């Protein structure tokens, strides 16, 4: 047992756990809770797990700008176990330079989750269980936020991974419901008792997504932090660096996680203002160095970073939509830079697409909102002749929903089965992909 400021924590051995006959540990000592948190440098700023979007290139880029803990995109435990070679080739990226990093899995079967996690544990610092995905595909597949009320099952999942892995197990949850926060607390107590080392709470329910996204409940996160004996990460509603600091102060959590804010502004946690042109160019460089296994990731990132300007320069939006090579992406980014030097972040940014009337959480924002990007023709966004300012999903290469963490699977299914009456074999394949 070790004393870590707040609590006593048990040091355990991972896997079979036995020592060598000479008394030396057979495996690396497994730390838990705050002892583990300390061992990974007490991270403050966290890049959220995002299917298609927290790929290695983006993880490495955000690290350069202040992120000190990353998560992989969600991996599907059953699909991974069924065909590890194929699944890894299409979905799995790790690198010794990307440390600390948690690998995230979804699933509802303890043994399948353990089998999948065991194939990944050597490459990552912890294994995270996705208990937050609110999408229909998660409902159909019985995972993510649709397990939040199945405390017995979740206890079994966490304890199975806790006992079977040589690295810690962590959980990312949402608020269980909006009427009784005690349900969320009870779930968190259960997860902690079963061996969860770090808990991340997204301060919204599974119903609060997409156009129904509401302000994240930091008060709930604060209460959870006050009750837990393990590190707590806050997630939701961080748009700026000031928001992040405010959330840390208001909730007292150990770290702040951001998803959409970082997609729009990968330098969010640095507190520095970096132009969208520099960010886009830098991301392309990272993507060339660490080519994403999901090819669509590059385009999606560029659409999100360049969102305010693409609403003005609609010809470049169309051009980006048709681009497929790094040379083409660079050409769009260079052309954009040559046309305008707009702000990196504004009321027209991608983060605000569902939140146009929502006041900022903290008083200050990183840029001057009066400076609307000016097009090459000298017209402001409002004056543009093109009627439609928002890009379509097709142009952006993916769905727009929060927790768009199923887009790859669904797009993949559509690609395989473009015909509304696909042959049975294709249907089976699509069904398998959708879990
Ligand atoms: C494109 C996208 C993909 C996501 N994929 C995942 C995922 O794989 N696993 C997960 O737990 N959450 C996923 N999420 C949810 C985020 O991790 C995060 O919980 C949510 O966006 C709220 O944080 P935010 O307010 O900072 O955006 C995804 C979100 C987005 C926007």
Helix content: 40-55%
What share of the residues does DSSP label as strand, in percent?
Answer: 5-15%
CATH architecture classification of the largest domain? Alpha-Beta Barrel
> What's the helix count?
19
Strand arrangement within the widest β-sheet reads 5-6-7-8-9-10-11-12
Q: Specify Rg, calculated over alpha carbons.
A: 22 Å
**Mean pLDDT across all residues, rounded?**
81
Family: Belongs to the Dus family. Dus1 subfamily.
Biased composition (Acidic residues): 392-404
Protein name: tRNA-dihydrouridine(16/17) synthase [NAD(P)(+)]
Cofactor: FMN
Give a topology summary.
Elements: E1 2-3, E2 8-9, E3 12-13, E4 29-30, H1 33-39, E5 45-47, H2 56-64, E6 69-76, H3 77-82, H4 84-91, E7 101-106, H5 110-120, E8 126-131, H6 136-141, H7 151-164, E9 169-174, H8 181-194, E10 196-202, H9 218-227, E11 232-235, H10 241-251, E12 255-258, H11 260-264, H12 276-289, H13 296-305, H14 307-310, H15 314-322, H16 326-339, H17 393-396, H18 407-416, H19 424-434
Parallel strand pairs: 5-6, 5-12, 6-7, 7-8, 8-9, 9-10, 10-11, 11-12
Antiparallel strand pairs: 1-2, 3-4
């Amino acid at each position: 047992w070790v004393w870590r400021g707040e609590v006593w924590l048990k040091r355990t051995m991972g896997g079979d756990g036995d020592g060598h006959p000479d008394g030396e540990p057979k495996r690396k000592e497994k730390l838990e809770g705050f002892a583990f948190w300390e061992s990974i440098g007490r991270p403050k700023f966290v890049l959220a797990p995002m299917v298609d979007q927290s790929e290695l290139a983006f993880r490495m880029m955000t690290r350069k700008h202040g992120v000190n803990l990353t998560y992989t995109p969600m991996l599907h435990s059953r699909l991974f176990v069924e065909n590890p070679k194929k699944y890894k080739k299409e979905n799995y990226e790790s690198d010794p330079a990307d440390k600390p990093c948690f690998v995230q899995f979804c699933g509802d079967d303890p043994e399948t989750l353990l089998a999948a996690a065991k194939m990944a544990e050597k490459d990552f610092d912890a294994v995270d269980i996705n208990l937050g995905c609110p999408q229909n595909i998660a409902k159909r597949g019985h995972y993510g936020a649709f397990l939040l009320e199945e405390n017995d099952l979740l206890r079994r999942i966490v304890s199975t991974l806790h006992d079977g892995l040589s690295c810690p197990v962590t959980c990312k949850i949402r608020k269980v419901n909006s009427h009784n926060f005690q349900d969320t607390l009870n779930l968190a107590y259960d997860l902690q008792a079963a061996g969860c080392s770090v808990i991340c709470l997204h301060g919204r329910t599974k119903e609060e997504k997409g156009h129904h996204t509401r302000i994240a409940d930091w008060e709930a996160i604060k209460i959870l932090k006050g009750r837990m004996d393990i590190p707590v990460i806050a997630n939701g509603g961080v748009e700026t660096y000031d928001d992040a600091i405010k959330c840390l102060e208001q909730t007292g959590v150990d770290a702040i996680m951001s998803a959409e804010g970082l997609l729009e502004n990968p330098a969010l946690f640095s507190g520095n203002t970096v132009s969208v042109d520099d960010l886009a160019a830098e991301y392309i460089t990272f993507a060339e160095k660490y080519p994403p296994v999901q090819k669509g990731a590059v385009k999606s990132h560029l659409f999100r970073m360049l969102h305010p300007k693409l609403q003005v320069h609609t010809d470049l939006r169309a051009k980006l939509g048709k681009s497929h090579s790094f040379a083409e992406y660079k050409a769009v980014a260079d052309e954009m830079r040559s046309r305008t030097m707009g702000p990196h972040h504004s009321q027209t940014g991608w983060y605000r697409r569902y939140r146009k009337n929502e006041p900022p959480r903290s008083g200050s924002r990183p840029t001057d909102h009066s400076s609307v990007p000016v097009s090459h023709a000298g017209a402001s966004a409002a004056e543009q002749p093109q009627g439609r300012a928002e890009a379509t999903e097709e142009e952006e290469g993916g769905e727009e929903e929060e927790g768009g963490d199923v887009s790859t699977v669904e797009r993949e299914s559509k690609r395989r089965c473009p015909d509304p009456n696909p042959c049975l074999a294709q249907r089976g394949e699509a069904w398998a992909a959708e879990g």
